[in-house]
Structures are given as C-alpha cells and as structure tokens.
Amino acid sequence: MLNRIKLLRRLLIDLPRYVKLTYCLLRDPRVPVTHKAAMGTALGMIVTPFIDIPMWVPVVGEMDVLALTLLAARLFVATAPAAVVAEHDEAIRQRRSRFDADVAGGQRLAVALAGRLRGQDTTPPPAEPSPPAPPPAQSVAQSRSSIPVE
Fold it and tell me: 49: helix, coil or strand?
C-alpha cells in the first residue's frame, strides 16, 4: 500500500513536468527523428485499446497507463541531447517554453470559439478606414477629350 502511495505521489509530481518536457523535445528539430518515432510508437502502444497487457506479466502488467506514459517520457528525455533538455527544462521553469506558448494560443482560440458559439463577435474592430485616394491627375488634352460634344 505504501508503494502505491509513493508511486501516485511521484506520478503527480513528475508527470506534468515530463509531459511538458516531452512536448517541447518532440517539437525541437535538434532531437533525432528516430527518438521521436520511438516515443510516438510507445505512446501509441500505451493508449491503443487493442493491446492489453495482462496483469500477470511482471512489473509491466501492474502498471497503469500513467505510469507507462511516465516511463516512456523518462526514457525519451534520457536519450535526448543533454544540452537541449537543459535548455527546455529551464524554459519550462520560467514559463516561457513552447508548451506554455501553445497552451496560451489554445486558450485564446478557445475563448474566440466560445464567443462565436454564444453569438458574440470577438474579432477586434477594424482599423479606421484610410481616406480615399485622390483621382489621378489628367493632362489638359485628356480632360478636353473627355468633354462630351453635343
């Protein structure tokens, strides 16, 4: 029972950090594509309902989806370049990471969509119209030729 409480506490503390770090590393071009593919495959296998790991399989069968996700994220972060991980980890601590920017963008989009669904127009008012452009200058010959003759 005590081990389950420690595991749950560890999940609640580590999982949000590793989710953010994994997201940032997946979006970073400096991380090898093969590592990104392995992470995607691991997450796909974890959430796929067709692959059900029986409880009798030692260790893995007893883990739930959150624990397996944390394990996959930790392995992905451990194989990423250390300098890139440190850079993203610092940005996450300062709340200026790619994850934070994308979440903020998603919030703005959600507010705009919610406003539209409620019938409110959330688009900013248009800028003041510019004055009409003056008509092009015509030469004297052109202005005389445009006068109708009766």
Answer: coil
